[in-house]
Amino acid sequence: MQHEDPHPSVPTTLVPLRNQVFRSIWISTQISSLGWLVQTVAISWLMVTISASDLMVALVQAASTLPVFLLSILAGAIADNFSRRWVMFTGHCLIALASTTLMISVGLGFVHPWLILGLGFLAGCGFALNDPAWHASVGDILHKRDIPAAVTLLSVGYNIVRSVGPALGGVILAFFGPLAAFALAALSDLAPLSAIWRTKWKVRSSPLPRERMATAIHDGVRFTAMSLEIRAAIARATLFGLASISILALLPLVVRDQLKSGPIVYGILLAGFGMGAFIAGMSNGFLRRITSQNRLVAFASVACATCCLSLAFTSSVAVAAISLALGGAGWLITWTGIDVSVQLASPRWVVGRTLSIYYALSAGGMAAGSWIWGSVAQNYSLTWALMGAAGALLLVAAVGIVLPIRPWEESDQESSDFRAPELALDLKPRSGPIVAKVEYLISDKNIDAFLGCMRAKRHALSRAGARNWTLQRNLQTPSLWTETFRTPTWMDFLRLNHRLTAADKEVGQHLLALHDGELSPHTVLSIERTTEAARTRASTIFSRPPR
């Protein structure tokens, strides 16, 4: 890990830019985002002009977010098992391919609604590969104390571009046509490809062999499912994405039907959305100091609800722009807060997978929301769709009472430096099942504290891969307690111990303090063996006729 800024003070939003690798990729990403936003304006307006279906217009947003829902979990496992740098490069290659194909298609005069959605889906596949790898790489490139600032910078940078890109897209679309917009997007995709190709960063490699994809996905899903903080953050993100995507999905219809305007106004309104997000991003540190992160995310949902209500009833471009600035602020605060919460709650060995699950479910919420609000607008009215989305956003704000977002705080993310014990048997990586037993001597006065520590240890071990964890009390010697758990193979046992963080090992220190024995408790390892095969072979031998 590269630590170019060892100063222990609390980082500002711009501190991560002191790191040359982060700065290079961040700047190139903004260039690519500028082209993507110009292309998005052109695609959305092109769809409005060639299709009379409100649903098809709303599905433009769904086309690029659906692949994130379908592929992100696989992409997260790939990011945790392969070079994140090359995963990012592959993702940007897919995005460049989609933009170039769209440019060529428009240049040849072949434009069809399903072709637009299909190429949007291809670009979404590129984002599904790139985003978990890039966000997980932030923790590889920078010190963990800089992660909140870096994630905020990622959102702020995108929204700086958002405040310029849509307006630029509207101007290009109005004066030069969609072909020029798609050509600019295709050229901008070269920037991140060049930056990723030129830069390298150190990543702490695992001494263990690469996991199989199915196992990696299973372990990532299990860890996420057993992490209360991550589950709460992902649930909030999914619900927020479902409701808040209405702002962007229905905005072309607002411009066309309510404001009676064209692509320039559409670009200006998207720029207002981006400007609001930019201001919120630069004020994020101040806002976190005056209120909790959970309340901040709830207020952000209320801001987006206010935006939807304003858009439902206004016919003024100025009012719509101010409303969208408020919605953009709520958008950035929510996604930044949830992203950082997931990152800080995830150890390095699984961060790509937890982020990918977060992206998958939030993108699934946005894809579903695009279809839902588009269907409501088509079957009822645009006003009803925006009002329904506003009501849903207010419910999302209320969900914070039962699903709070964790405070941003520095936590241990490094895996342990576990060394495999010496064995008398020559085990293969797939030998197993492995049984681990640890015995403790606990006095009656320490039983409650011991059980509390054991609950924490069970949770830590189970998240890392332990199976069938049990705790037994000896009936003849009540002070003797035995902890038992299993792993399917010897390699799974090694992975489990490499995954335990310093925070997990603190539980072991507490248990050691409660132990009354003269010798410290140690782990006894066994391998399970069945007698069924031996019985079968024996019966075969004894059933042979004598010679």
From TrEMBL:
A Pfam family of this chain: MFS_3
What Gene3D superfamilies does this protein map onto?
MFS general substrate transporter like domains
UniProt keyword terms in alphabetical order: Cell membrane, Membrane, Transmembrane, Transmembrane helix, Transport
Give the chief site where it resides. Answer: membrane
- One of the record's GO cellular component terms: plasma membrane
Q: Where in the cell is it found?
A: Cell membrane
Q: Major facilitator superfamily (MFS) profile domain: which residues? A: 21-409
Protein name in the entry: Putative MFS family arabinose efflux permease
What GO MF terms are annotated? transmembrane transporter activity
**Can you tell me which residues the record assigns to a coiled coil?**
none
What the entry lists under CDD domains is as follows: MFS_MefA_like
Q: Which InterPro entries does this chain map to?
A: MFS_dom, MFS_trans_sf, TM_effector
Membrane spanning segments where? 33-52, 58-79, 86-108, 114-134, 171-197, 233-252, 264-284, 296-313, 319-338, 350-372, 384-405
**What membrane topology does the annotation report for this chain?**
Multi-pass membrane protein
